């Protein structure tokens, strides 16, 4: 029988993270590992690539529930806005193969209320068998008020969906994109989608008023067990996260430390992670945005990095040559 | 039968869930609006009891019991007839709505911006309604606020209501996308034009019922274009409501096949849109 995580487990995990943090920056015992793999296209090869990628991180999910959180934003299946459904399905299969008791796909889009129609337009129903039974609309889920373990914004508590609070592992699966407010949107910013629209509205404007970077960092601290798997097969550059231009990169980036994963993605995008506000706030000790503090496995960054076009106000984020 | 589906989904406590689970204010009010006059007075009365018990001391409603803060769903409760909700409860709800604006419209915020040398953009000149207090106003909650106050003003005209409705309508006109229709928020973001959404275009048009002019005409044309390719229940419902509010729903229109009505608000709003197309709608009696 599968070992389901209970609210008590989750609270204990959060408390442990808080104690470890000592209300300060989390201290890394070992350098967090981030893996880059080549993934040239959204095709059947992804199943093997993702399976090996997930296996390599030795995640303890056997008998435990996993929640996969893609980035579903808009009704434009031909664009590079949404996490590709084939990649999400490949991740589902990989976690099933690892023995997860349940693999749920969950998302709470920030702009559009008709989440299931959005998923259908994005190809999720067509690509993922039994999608509707596997999916939870986090905007409309049952909620629990959670104290923020480390507070970066003025928010002290936030309502969060029970589906994600009950996960033994939360898998953030964003698209590799630039963002017109934060510079880049990756695994950490993707967690805005777990905040329930049913409580906070569409968009979740409370987070904007509390400070976008600060709220992203707040949410990161709530979930002590995360895995980030970034869809960089085709990303988005320019005026992301919606109106930008597709950027084929042919990569997946993964790891258990979302700060390190996002920092690696930034380097691939030729963006200086040390200049992304939420990465600076959430960074551990030593800081993941310093490349030497991350154990980089798989493909080297230098071989795959390509500069993402940036809006004029973000040109100062550009990673200097050789940095 | 959509109303039968609504009755099946009523919770034991009298409220309605979005799909399953605990009762929330939004689906409960939409179900009540759709079931009004349906004949099942027991279900409606149980729903009304749930709703009455959930009203907060400040006159508003929270998204669901326990959230602890009145919010945009108060507009929906304000759309219920006062005689059904209770006259005093209804009056209190309308008072809460009348006094609520987006944070960017508050005097304190404006003074702070002035002191910092920031000039408010023109679209912020008129106050709308926020999803939750302490945040900015948006198109959807503003449209619902106008509908609630508009209904009340037709039954009990009052200068204060009239001016608040006018402010809300100016907010919508200011936020119209270039070429017509509405996004959920601003017309532009960082200098880039925002695209119109079908559901918010329909909502805003419903709130602008009785308003005529270039903006409404442009947006009605956008709504008609959206209607042709619509595959979302939420969008279709609101497009029909918005077009019906201006008597512009195409005669003989048949929704595309395969539209799934999954949530209680989608099912209930479909009933309301059917009524609006037939000439009767709880939003603007």
Please count the helical segments of chain A. 13
What fraction of residues of chain A sit in β-strands?
15-25%
Strand content of chain B: under 5%
CATH topology of chain A: Rossmann fold
Number of strands of chain A: 12
Outline the biggest β-sheet of chain B: 2 strands, antiparallel
CATH architecture type of chain B: Alpha/alpha barrel
What topology, given as strand order, has the largest sheet of chain B?
Answer: 1-2
- Give the total of beta strands of chain B: 2
Shape of chain B: globular
Structural class of chain B: mainly alpha
Distance N to C terminus of chain A? 50 Å
Main beta sheet of chain A: 10 strands, mixed
Would you kindly provide a written description of the structure presented here, covering whatever features stand out?
Chain A has 323 residues and is α/β, with parallel strands linked by helices. In chain A, 31% of the residues lie in helices and 22% in strands. Chain A has 13 helices and twelve strands. In chain A, the strands form two sheets. In chain A, strands 1, 2, 3, 4, 7, 8, 9, 10, 11 and 12 form a ten-stranded mixed beta sheet that branches. A two-stranded antiparallel ribbon of chain A has the order 5-6. In chain A, a hairpin with a 3-residue loop joins β8 and β9. The longest helix of chain A is centred in the first third of the chain and has 15 residues, at 7-21. Chain B is mainly alpha-helical and 285 residues long. Chain B is built from 13 helices and two strands; from the N terminus they run αααααααααββαααα. Chain B has helices at residues 2-8, 25-35, 41-54, 73-78, 82-85, 87-99, 107-115, 139-155, 159-174, 198-207, 214-228, 233-245, 264-277, and strands at residues 188-189, 192-193. In chain B, strands 1-2 form a two-stranded antiparallel sheet. In chain B, β1 and β2 form a beta hairpin. In chain B, α8 runs antiparallel to α9 (159-174). Chain B is globular, with a radius of gyration of 18 Å. Chains A and B meet through α4, α8 and α9 of A and α12 of B.
């Amino acid at each position: 029988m599968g070992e389901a995580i209970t609210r008590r487990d989750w609270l204990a995990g959060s408390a442990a993270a808080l104690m470890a943090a000592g209300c300060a920056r989390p201290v890394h015992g070992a350098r967090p590992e981030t893996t880059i793999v080549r993934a040239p296209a959204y095709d059947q090869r992804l199943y093997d690539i993702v399976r090996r990628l997930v296996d390599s991180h030795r995640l303890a999910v056997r008998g435990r529930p996993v929640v996969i959180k893609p980035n579903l934003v808009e009704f434009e299946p031909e664009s590079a806005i949404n996490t590709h459904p084939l990649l999400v399905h490949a991740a589902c299969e990989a976690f099933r193969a690892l023995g997860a008791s349940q693999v749920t796909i969950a998302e709470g889009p920030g702009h559009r209320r008709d989440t299931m129609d959005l998923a259908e337009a994005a190809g999720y129903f067509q690509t993922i068998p039994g999608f509707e039974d596997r999916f939870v609309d986090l905007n409309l889920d049952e909620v629990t008020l959670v104290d923020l373990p480390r507070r970066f914004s003025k928010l002290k508590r936030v309502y969060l969906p029970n589906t994600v609070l009950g996960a033994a592992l939360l898998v953030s699966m964003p698209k590799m994109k630039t963002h017109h407010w934060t510079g880049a949107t990756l695994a950490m910013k993707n967690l805005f989608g777990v905040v329930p629209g049913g409580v906070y509205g569409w968009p979740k404007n409370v987070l904007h008023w509390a400070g976008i970077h600060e709220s992203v960092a707040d949410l990161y601290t709530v979930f002590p067990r995360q895995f980030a798997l970034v869809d960089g097969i085709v990303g988005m550059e320019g005026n992301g996260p919606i109106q930008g231009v597709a950027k084929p990169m042919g990569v997946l980036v993964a790891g258990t430390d979302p700060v390190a994963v996002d920092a690696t993605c930034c380097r691939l995008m030729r963006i200086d992670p040390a200049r992304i506000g939420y990465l600076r706030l959430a960074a551990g000790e030593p800081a993941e945005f310093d490349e030497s503090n991350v154990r980089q496995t798989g493909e080297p960054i230098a071989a795959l990095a390509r500069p993402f076009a940036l809006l004029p106000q973000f040109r100062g984020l550009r990673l200097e040559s050789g940095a | 039968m959509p109303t039968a589906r609504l009755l099946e989904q009523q919770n034991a406590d009298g409220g309605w869930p979005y799909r399953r689970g605990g009762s929330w204010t939004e689906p409960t009010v939409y179900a009540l609006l759709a079931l009004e006059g349906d004949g099942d007075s027991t279900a409606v009365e149980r729903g009304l009891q749930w709703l009455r018990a959930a009203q907060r001391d400040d006159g508003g409603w929270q998204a669901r019991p326990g959230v602890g803060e009145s919010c945009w769903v108060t507009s929906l409760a304000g759309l219920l007839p006062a005689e059904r909700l209770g006259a005093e409860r209804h009056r209190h709800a309308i008072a809460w709505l009348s006094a609520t604006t987006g944070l960017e419209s508050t005097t304190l915020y404006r003074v702070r911006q002035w002191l910092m040398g920031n000039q408010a953009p023109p679209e912020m000149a008129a106050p709308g309604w926020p999803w939750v207090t302490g945040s900015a106003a948006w198109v959807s909650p503003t449209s619902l606020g106008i509908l609630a106050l508009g209904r009340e003003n037709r039954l009990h005209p009052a200068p204060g209501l009239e001016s608040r409705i006018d402010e809300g309508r100016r907010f919508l006109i200011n936020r119209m996308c270039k070429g017509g229709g509405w996004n959920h928020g601003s017309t532009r973001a960082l200098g880039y034009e925002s695209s119109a959404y079908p559901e918010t275009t329909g909502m805003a048009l419903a709130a602008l019922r009785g308003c005529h002019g270039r903006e409404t005409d442009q947006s009605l044309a956008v709504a008609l274009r959206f209607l042709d390719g619509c595959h979302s229940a939420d969008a279709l419902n609101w497009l029909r409501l918005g077009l019906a509010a201006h008597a512009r729903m195409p005669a003989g229109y048949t929704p595309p096949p395969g539209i799934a009505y999954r949530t209680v608000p989608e099912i209930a709003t479909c009933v309301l849109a059917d009524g609006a197309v037939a000439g009767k709608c709880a939003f603007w009696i």
